[in-house]
Design a protein that fits this description.
Blueprint lengths: L17 H6 L4 H9 L2 H11 L11 H6 L12 E6 L8 H8 L1 H15 L3 E6 L4 H16 L15 E6 L9 H8 L23 E5 H13 L1 H7 L7 E7 L6 E6 L4 H8 L9 E5 L19 H7 L7 E6 L4 H15 L5 H18 L5 H13 L9 H15 L1 H10 L8
Parallel strand pairs: 1-2, 1-4, 2-3, 5-8
Antiparallel strand pairs: 5-6, 7-8
Helix pairs in contact: 2-6, 2-9, 3-6, 3-10, 5-7, 6-9, 9-10, 13-14, 13-16, 14-15, 15-16
Amino acid sequence: MDRPLTQNIRADRDFATLADYRKTGGYEGLRKAVTDLGPKAVQQWVKDAGLRGRGGAGFGTGLKWSLVPIDPAPDHPPYLVVNADEMEPGTFKDRLLLEKDPHQLLEGIAIAAYAIQAQTAYIFLRGEYRLAAERLTRALQEARAAHYVGAHLLDSDFSLDIHLHTSAGRYICGEESALLNALEGKRATPRPKPPFAVVSGLWGRPTVVNNVETICNVPHILRHGADWYKGLGRGADAGTKLFGASGRVKRPGLWELPMGTPIREILEEHAGGMKDGYQLRGFLPGGASTDFLLPEHLDVPMEFDTVAKAGSRMGTGTIIVLDDKTCPVRMVLNLERFFAQESCGWCTPCRDGLPWTVTLLQDIVEGRGRPEDLDTLAGLTRMLGPGNTFCALAPGAMEPLQSALKYFREDFERYIFQNRPLKEAV
């Protein structure tokens, strides 16, 4: 089995029910965890497998779990929260897993909760994902009836309840501390760090926040072992991942592929290459908040460290393609408008810097740009960079801008000096 995450997703059915999930070994990983392994052993299995978070940061999952005190006072158990608030532009990987195989996520939650001894878990779901909410609700009912969730699940000493929380919908809720504030019913603003959530998170208790795709990997590691999981990857990173492509490619979509799959293979074999009449000019490798890469980077393997070495981030692994007939300046303006709108307004650089960025870009594309605006934009990418804001929203917003200034500067200059785009804008 080389595609564990999508093994239950089939064209001839809408989604996998509990019966469908059991046919492929569903919930056997949970049974092994609670009957044969202690919480620390489960953590070690996931550490040995080399699972890194699939939400974008790539932090070691087993290491994150191990930071939670394993024997807390009985009246202060930790929480597990699943971040299903998928709002990164160009990203739709978690939606597939949520809608098509909800029991895979529930089994992963139960195992992860057991590993940190959480008795309560929350799924923080994007509000627009209504179909996912319906299917998760049904799956939770099935899991409770089958004693995979609830008191003394699978006749063990471990008890767990899982709550589904639909978000009111803000991009900032993808930041884990803002998510926790929203879950507590507060304004969704990031918290100062430290303390980090694994020390003081939801309602002041130790809390692990994991991405949907990350959690969906866990049952397969428990079923088949760490060595099997590591063997799925082509390079340094273990396992498989959902990679995607959007833009003017022939077959936009998602594919489960080994970690380390070259970008060229994703775009040319799985996405079918560029549409007729279009050429590849660049791409954002991991969603809207990553730096542009160029055709010369097509042979870079999709792994956390290799993409970083090339000058960007793997992020969510969902590629947004820039073709030769789309204006990169207008593309970046569109992205910056989104980020400015989604700023929570908590810190000054983000609250004021992003609208300023939009104004400068708007002036450039409307013929009011000045040569010094390019220096101002470059300065903003530094002032809104890492370490100058409460969270990663503004630094992420600066990544497509800073790389566009680096790779597509002639497009900006054509607007300023000749009052027209280098390519026809769309």
